[in-house]
Amino acid sequence: MEKSQIAKGIMAGLIIVHGHTFAAENEGESVFSPLTITDNPLAEKNQVGSSEESYTRPGAYSSRTLNKNLQSLDASLRSMAGTYTQIDPLQGSISVNIRGMNGLGRVNTMVDGVTQTYFGMAPANYHGGANTAAGVPLDPNFLAEVDVTRGSSAGSQGVNALAGSANMRTIGIDDVLREGRQAGVLSRFSVGDNGLGRTGMVAVAGKTDTFENGGALGALVGISGRRTYATYKNGGGRSSEDFIGEDNKYLRQEPRSQLYKLNFNPDQFNKIEFSGRNYSNSFTRRDITSDDYALRYNYAPLNELVELNLLASTSRGNQAYKPESLYNFNSSSTTNKSNAIDISNTSRFKMSEDLFTVFQVGGKLMDTRYTRRFVQNTETDHNAFAPAGKQKISSLYSSLTLNKDIYQLDLNLNYTRSQVTGYKPACGDNEKCFPQGESHLKLDNTDVNPSATFSAQVAPWLQPFVSWSRSSRAPNVQEVFFANEGGASMNPFLKPEKAETWEAGFNINKQGLLHEQDSFHLKALAYRSRIKNYITSESFFLCHDGRLCQDIDNASDSFNANIYINVPSTVTATGYEIEAGYDIGFAYANLSWSKQHTDQPTSIASTVYSFAYSDLSDLPDSYATLDVGGRLFDRRLTVGSLVKFTGKTKRLSTEGISLDSNTVPKEDMPNIPTIIDLYSTWQATDNVQLRLSVQNVTNRDYAEALNRMNQSVDYARAGTSVNTTARGRTWIFGGEIQF
């Protein structure tokens, strides 16, 4: 079937179901499918599922429960198929990578459903210059679960999400309270050697009895803090002071975080939640704050044509730089503010005797602004410090799920309008650009993104599926208004990226595979994505006639603009993903494995000489995590091991920009050894759980994939190697107390 026919079919289906809904209303009757009843009026809806949900949903979906075996948030995300992280020791934030795509809009990273727009810029760098990255500054101790959807543009989470989305859920009232309790405390702590430092979190929660009308009231308050050090030893016993250089004294962190939630349910049909999350940190010669506030409302009367959900949020991030932390900039600071509202309604009904339907329609608005403040010793518009501008995303989305017999068809349609606006300074008299004078640019684009997933429960244990999706993401402020050569380096014609993704795979869920009490789960799939208008930056010179060109022999040696452009060729990404789990009670094994390839180009702005935007995001050729363990003493003691395999990996050339091609080449990293972690968990009492872990137990000496520290050690001491920057053997002790 042609792509246009698929899109028309999806839209026709949405029109048809709307017609059936209208007809049912005119007939004066409503048809109800079974209701799910919970005795907890404060239970949150649409939360991230448990890890077992990975194997029950058709499509590329993974879920993890966090804070169980003393693994870092980076390690937990890297244990998912097709999912990775960009590690930057200078940022102090989490940056999710999906299938080799990373950054604002390529991955929609959310906390409790709120899209994160923080863009960090570290003034200090172990290899000189400054570097930047999109990420989420947060305390992992507050997290309960994370789920990742890859290759889908469906629903609110698919708005302005090229490769997929990641949603991290913070702890709620029911995570703190023990069953049957109305008040409680949850505390988490850990302490580690080799520079890991210590962490601690305390959350207090309480709730009332259920009101006579079915309502309730509950609240949660949590505080958390940690201290981590930059000084550690690699597997060879060498101190990080040798290869981090002078930045070592700026990398000690003591972030502080607070979490607040107030749940008020006026009755059994209305649920309201106010939430707030604060984060503050001071390192790399800057003071960082990040604050999120959200209002959630759910209205679910005894009418299955109506379930209304509203999410209104406001976020603010600020970075204030210490004096002399940036060359030529004094009293500098950057701020990002984002306001969003997301509203939707879900209807459930029968279109015929054996055709069950779920129909959702909604809209989402996001208004994000990046501002900067600085005083220059020498005034110039030619600087790439924290590009300023505004991005506005407006979207309408709908989904239709049809269930008949063993078959399920999910149809989705997103309409998105993006607007990017900001100031462009005038170009020089000898520079030809458009517009020539100073102006306020406005890039306005619309995209229609349909998607479809078909699955069949051909056996109680087997569910094959196939999906097709179109997705897009708008240019970012940091790309459009990048200004290392002022207005001449800005591109007013930058277009959104567009991706088309096919997936095919199957889920297996089998109870009693080898023993009547065991369970086996498997998700396996293959995918292929083709990306048009891929955005990257290239180097341009000023030819003698005033035009921009790439002929260095016919150009001025005083001008070199790094301009973000749309690549004319199509970028292709292909891969295979497997997640599997087997549990027999006294023992278990979980495996994730990915193999992928992409031909996406590098970005000239990735170099530290251009504030290090757009780092390399190619995933390793293959990688896997094997988690095996056993449960002893009535399952009060768990002992396990994580085996982490990483295949061939690339990085940006340690030689920097190639003079022959005027690009930043990719180069192969040395082989990364298999890393083994050991962990144990002991349920000492009903209220106390203690944990112990040894990471990199064999003390291997290596460099991690997609870690900025494997790029260059220009300012390190003689004899150090860029290939041995990973942490050596490390012990961690921690626990959780709940009462």
Automatic annotation (TrEMBL):
Q: Name one Pfam family in it.
A: Plug
Q: Where in the cell is it found?
A: Cell outer membrane
Q: Which domain of life is it from?
A: Bacteria
Name the membrane topology term. Multi-pass membrane protein
Q: What is its main location?
A: membrane
Q: Where are the transmembrane segments?
A: none
Q: What InterPro entries does the database record attribute to this sequence?
A: Beta-barrel_TonB (IPR000531), Beta-barrel_TonB_sf (IPR036942), Plug_dom (IPR012910), Plug_dom_sf (IPR037066), TonB-dep_rcpt-like (IPR039426)
Q: Tell me its family.
A: Belongs to the TonB-dependent receptor family.
Protein name, UniProt field: TonB-dependent receptor
Q: Specify the species.
A: Raoultella scottii
